[in-house]
Design a protein that fits this description.
Elements (H helix, E strand, L loop, with lengths): L19 H22 L4 H28 L5 H18 L1 H4 L9 H28 L5
Helix pairs in contact: 1-2, 1-5, 2-3, 3-5
The structure holds fe (ii) ion (2 copies).
Length: 143
């Protein structure tokens, strides 16, 4: 039963930046990771799993671009460093996921990769994205 599968990731209010567009993106990324995890657990098939994996990568890129545009607009002093972290994640995921992306089989997308993605997102939101919230408060900037 799908309901019996323990979630790989659940949203935490500790991750709230207070910037709606960013929080909505993060929630959507969590949903996509969870959806991908379910599809793998229930062996939905290679095509389906690849489609969600591609959607996750694409949405991650969309989110990173949105965040970087916002950071630039408000003069966030960590923009350059933050941008590099985003680029590194995409590079790593594309490298680790190249087999499934190149029309590989379902088993080519490993739970390790999904775990890596999930851990990265959690850590990144808590340690990096939330710094933008602190920056806004410190500089008394309303978004
Ligand atoms: Fe983010
Ligand atoms: Fe970020």
């Amino acid at each position: 039963m799908i309901q019996d599968i323990k979630p790989i990731v659940t949203w935490s209010d500790d991750w709230v930046t207070g910037i709606k567009i960013i929080d909505d993106d993060h929630r959507h990324l969590v949903d996509l990771i969870q959806k991908l995890f379910h599809s793998m657990m229930t062996e939905k098939g290679t095509t389906f799993i690849r489609t969600i994996f591609v959607e996750l990568i694409n949405y991650t890129n969309t989110h990173f671009n949105r965040e970087e545009r916002m950071f630039k607009k408000y003069g966030f002093d960590e923009l350059d460093r933050h941008k590099i972290l985003h680029e590194q994640l995409v590079e790593q995921v594309l490298a680790k996921g190249k087999h499934i992306l190149n029309k590989g089989r379902q088993k080519d997308l490993s739970f390790e990769l999904l775990d890596f993605f999930k851990d990265w997102l959690e850590n990144h939101i808590i340690k990096e994205d939330l710094k933008f919230k602190t920056f806004l408060i410190k500089n008394n900037i309303q978004v």
